[in-house]
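SAMPLE LOG
Freezer: B-3
Tube label: C17
Construct: single chain, 332 aa
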Amino acid sequence: MEYMRWIFIIIFLFGSLTFAQKVKVLTSGTKTSIRGLSIVNDNTIWVSGSGGTIGRSLDKGLSWKWFVVKDFEKNDFRDIEAFDAVTAVIMGISEPAFILKTIDGGETWKAVYENKMKGMFLDAMEFWNEQSGIVIGDPIDRRFFILRTFDGGNTWRDLPSQNYPEADSGEACFASSGTNIRKLAKDEACFVSGGLRSRLFIRDKKYDLPIIQGKESTGANSVAVKNKNTLVVVGGDFTTPGATEKNCSITHDGGKTWTAPSIPPHGYRSCVEYIGKKKWICCGLNGVDYSTDDGKTWRWISKESFNSCRKAKDGKAVFFAGGNGEIGILVP
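STRUCTURE (predicted):
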């Protein structure tokens, strides 16, 4: 009996260590809602949000410098891509849609793209490297809008409209975390849709997702990529933050087949991120979930509300951003 007691204690301690991760809130209390989040390295973090607000930290989130972009005080910058401590690109979503760039740490911004087309709504931005990037927007005339840059965001070009992916009726994208489009390989990207229909798009291939759908508030919000075969998609219904039905799905064959977690994330999730080996993190309105088995099971490690979670491009740090200017970090 004594032997068995020690076995149970060891198992308990090992499990506690395995899931010791937690989220530490670094800053909160401002009026801005933050959805754009870009982590250059373990020290350099950029965020973007409502009210034309941009934030930057150079010391792992301990202190922040905040900017309101002049002449864009009413814009909602839903996504940001930072390349270093002084260079970043931000995306303003709608009517008119703007993309701006800074090369002086956020002190000044240059408008590098503007689109006044009726119905224009940009959702997310992704870069393969410091030169090549892509933006996905909601459908116009039943085709998803796409922009490309090949010079670090200095200039942008529309694709020919006939090359835009076709959308179904009531199908769109969610500008919830800047992560519904992701790079797959050197010259490939994928994106996910939601609404009345939810799908994964890879070039000319379209895969139906086993994510809850059928209403404007439902569908896939975010996709994360481990490699070309293994992807995790999260979403749900943002009007029911605690619902777990069909809010996460995993593929190991590039989207051909999908499996649901045995223990799903504990609510609607607006963002998912691959953070190394078999570890993944996702967040939403009612908290943060963590997986160590490639998404098969998820543990609810925080009930703090966040919109976005991202891992450092050059490093291991994982940060979160949400409403009321809240920013967090994953700690052991």
